[in-house]
Amino acid sequence: MAATYQIRAMRRNELNFAVALAANEGWNPGIHDANVFFATDPGGFLVGLLDDEPIGCISAVRYGPGFGFLGFYIVAPGYRGRGYGMQLWNSALEQFGTRNIGLDGVQEQQANYRKSGFSLAYSNIRYAWQNRVQHEPATTPNIVSVKHVDADSIARYDRLCFPASRPTFLDAWLNQPDSVALAWLENGATRGYGVIRPCRDGWKIGPLFADQRGIAESLLLALSHKTAVGEPVYLDVPDVNAEGMRLAADLGMQEVFGTARMYNHYLPDIATERIFGVTTFELG
């Protein structure tokens, strides 16, 4: 009897399967990512079931009527090359409708994404850095917890660096357990903010958005004080941000991974010069 393949929206507990697949691929998801991601778009995660057993996944997270982000495109080893992944891909694209879609794909899959109408915008480079010194950060009145900043101010700044407003995501992302979220305030205005969260291996900083390198570096160092000496810290830097790339080099960060940021309709009008660290490869 032929196996039955079904694609449907994930239930919350099934998102753990997607996160586990991502971990097996070496993508190093955050400890609390599943809760935050599912809250952002509960219908935006698809699972492929072969005789009711999950074998693949993809996410099609929608940010309002104009933009969406595709991620978690994984078929378990042993089931690849049989067309299951392409069926997941097509189902995800259907979910987006006419929205402009972004993705961070592995570099070697760029040609396949182009076949579906995606074009390369730039590459994101994952850097690893070890916290070498544990000490109290230099105090500055400019760096404050985002809990002390008006949420609308953070959301407006975030919108400069992301192709759509994402209030639901931000509410969950900035308040996830075990993380730290800091902002840089100047004359009452937000000029940057960043988040560090625990991952399967070490910590990730993302986003790291700032008006200029000095602010980004101060926020990065302040966020890193959440970590212990020797723990790895990861930062995903767009290669089109020259100051971000120089910051990573000057701090002695090591390149460990890279993705291709691609869009299928048009390049969004976002301030890449302010993006010193991408929020997340899975949801943008």
Could you explain how this protein is built, in words?
This protein is of the alpha+beta class and 284 residues long. It is built from 8 helices and 13 strands. The protein has helices spanning 15-24, 33-40, 84-96, 110-115, 151-161, 167-173, 213-224, 242-250; strands spanning 5-9, 45-50, 53-63, 67-75, 100-106, 119-130, 143-145, 180-186, 189-198, 203-210, 232-238, 254-263, 275-277. α2 packs antiparallel against α6. The protein is globular, with a radius of gyration of 19 Å. The model has no long low-confidence stretch (mean pLDDT 94).
Element order: H for helix, E for strand? EHHEEEHEHEEHHEEEHEHEE
Span of the ends, CA to CA: 41 Å
Using only C-alpha atoms, the radius of gyration works out to 19 Å
Basic shape:
globular
Number of helices: 8
Brief rundown of the structure:
With 284 residues, the protein is of the alpha+beta class. It has helices at 15-24, 33-40, 84-96, 110-115, 151-161, 167-173, 213-224, 242-250; strands spanning 5-9, 45-50, 53-63, 67-75, 100-106, 119-130, 143-145, 180-186, 189-198, 203-210, 232-238, 254-263, 275-277.
List the helices and strands and how they pair.
Elements: E1 5-9, H1 15-24, H2 33-40, E2 45-50, E3 53-63, E4 67-75, H3 84-96, E5 100-106, H4 110-115, E6 119-130, E7 143-145, H5 151-161, H6 167-173, E8 180-186, E9 189-198, E10 203-210, H7 213-224, E11 232-238, H8 242-250, E12 254-263, E13 275-277
Helix pairs in contact: 2-6
